[in-house]
Amino acid sequence: MMLIRKGFDGLDISYPLTISEDVAERLELAKQEAECAVSDGGVYDHDGLQMLVSPTGAKGGFRYLCRTSGTSPMGETWKFKRPTGNKDVWGVSVSCNALPLALFGLTGVRAGIEATLERLELDYRPGTESIGRVDVCADVICPGLALDRHHIVCHSHSRVSEYDDGAITSHGRSSRVETLTIGKNPNLQVSIYDKRADTIAKKKAYWVDIWNDALARRGLPLVDLSGRDTSEVWRVEVHAFKQHLKKR
After folding, report:
1. Per the omega criterion (within 30 degrees of 0), is the bond before 186 cis?
2. 144 close to 231: Cβ distance less than 8 angstroms
3. DSSP annotation string for 150-218
4. Which helix (H) or strand (E) holds 245?
5. CA-derived radius of gyration, the chain
6. Could you tell me the strand order of the sheet in which 49-53 lies?
7. What is the DSSP secondary structure assignment for residue 149, as one 8-state letter?
8. The whole model's pTM is what?
9. What distance in Å separates the CA atoms of residue 164 and residue 177, rounded to the nearest whole number?
């Protein structure tokens, strides 16, 4: 077993901020454009900031659902509430994608978010934000690993699920378990899964580049997905959701 990467893998943040009427009007126009056109969304473009605005909103009263890098794995997903003057001050929410966190780290991603808040003419004050979710992960090369729920120590009340090729299976009757998950939202959740299989299935070749960059800097053999023996990468993910972050 060899660790090849560790770091942040996901981040959800809410801000006690509300966009201005002018920004809301521009977002509304982009949303109407998305509703009328056969496309992924309308474009909000202002002060060097471009966002792809979805024709739909999001749960929680968010009128606008936007992506800063279109459909690519870079950037973030932003949600905004309309400036209606109600008592709900949490008018901005951001979900960060895994790839920019892997490339730029938490510090770089947070700096990018704050730059976007500034372009949106929002007066962000450090420390006022609320963290809704934090994911950290570790990728290890471990050929021949066989997941067994009986080797996992957890609280007796924890929910444990096993998956084989995406289908829920009973433990002990599956020839090869690819994912094991303990816990659930809104508390703490830990997942162990075959990242090689996930990378191939979802065509996320950029993970191979990230792994090989780390291996090359250490003078170690590179990952080649064509052979399982030399590329069996497993990921351990820890998801800390809002309830866990708040109470623990």
Report:
1. yes
2. no
3. GG----TT--EEEEETTEE--TTS-S---EEEEE-TTSEEEEEEEHHHHHHHTT-THHHHHHHHHHHHT
4. helix 242-247
5. 21
6. 42-46, 49-53, 64-67, 76-80, 92-96, 2-15, 130-141, 233-241, 188-194, 179-183, 160-164, 167-168
7. G
8. 0.86
9. 5
237, amino acid identity:
E
Q: Which amino acid is at 38?
A: V
* Count of C-beta atoms within a 10 Å radius of residue 101: 22
Please give the DSSP secondary-structure letter assigned to residue 60.
T
Q: How many CB atoms lie within 10 A of CB 20?
A: 12
Amino acid at residue number 228 = R
Tens digit of each residue's pLDDT (9 = 90 or more) over 208-232: 999 999 999 999 999 999 888 888 9
| Residue extents of the structural domains in the chain | 17-128, 136-247
| DSSP 8-state code for residue 62 | B
- What is the total residue count of the chain? 248
Residue with tokens 């929002």: 122
Give the residue-averaged pLDDT of 155-180: 56
